[in-house]
Design brief:
globular, 30% strand, six-stranded antiparallel barrel, alpha+beta, 148 residues, Pnp Oxidase, Chain A
């Protein structure tokens, strides 16, 4: 079964547009960025607000809602751009296997549980490892590396 949690009306029409507008203006909300990635069918640029996780010196994108369109596009394209104000950073993405996601999902939940916790089936940063391992396949994670 493919996990995808559709955003509610408040998230879709209020929260995400406000965070995206602030990020486009150069104001990062708890590490927010605007992700730009080419559509896997159209080839046109698509954008979505995302939370950029920094963990042990590396940077990651986590798909809290599961198999979202931005995640599918990034999986196909393998690269994209992160925007904060007028600053654009090109990057390459590498998907992380499920068995390596546990500490990353914990770090993500520790920082953004108030914002995205509802999408993690009651699992928190402090949940037992078997619970985090159970939800890991539902939440793709990508390590990103800056392209000079």
């Amino acid at each position: 079964m493919v996990y995808y949690r559709k955003p509610g009306r408040f998230t879709k029409y209020v929260f995400n547009p406000v965070v995206a507008a602030m990020t486009r203006a150069g104001i990062s909300v708890w590490g927010s960025r605007v992700l730009r990635v080419r559509g896997r069918k159209s080839g046109e640029w698509r954008s979505a607000p995302v939370n950029l996780l920094t963990y042990q010196g590396s940077r990651y994108l986590v798909a809290p809602r599961g198999l979202t369109q931005w995640m599918r596009n990034l999986r196909e394209a393998g690269d994209g751009e992160l925007m904060l104000g007028s600053r654009i950073e090109r990057f390459r993405a590498q998907e992380i296997p499920d068995d390596q996601k546990i500490p990353l999902l914990r770090a993500y939940l520790k920082r953004w549980k108030a914002e995205v916790g509802i999408f993690f089936s009651g699992v928190s940063a402090d949940s037992p490892e078997e619970d985090v391992r159970r939800i890991a396949p539902d939440h793709p994670v990508f390590r990103i590396e800056k392209i000079p």
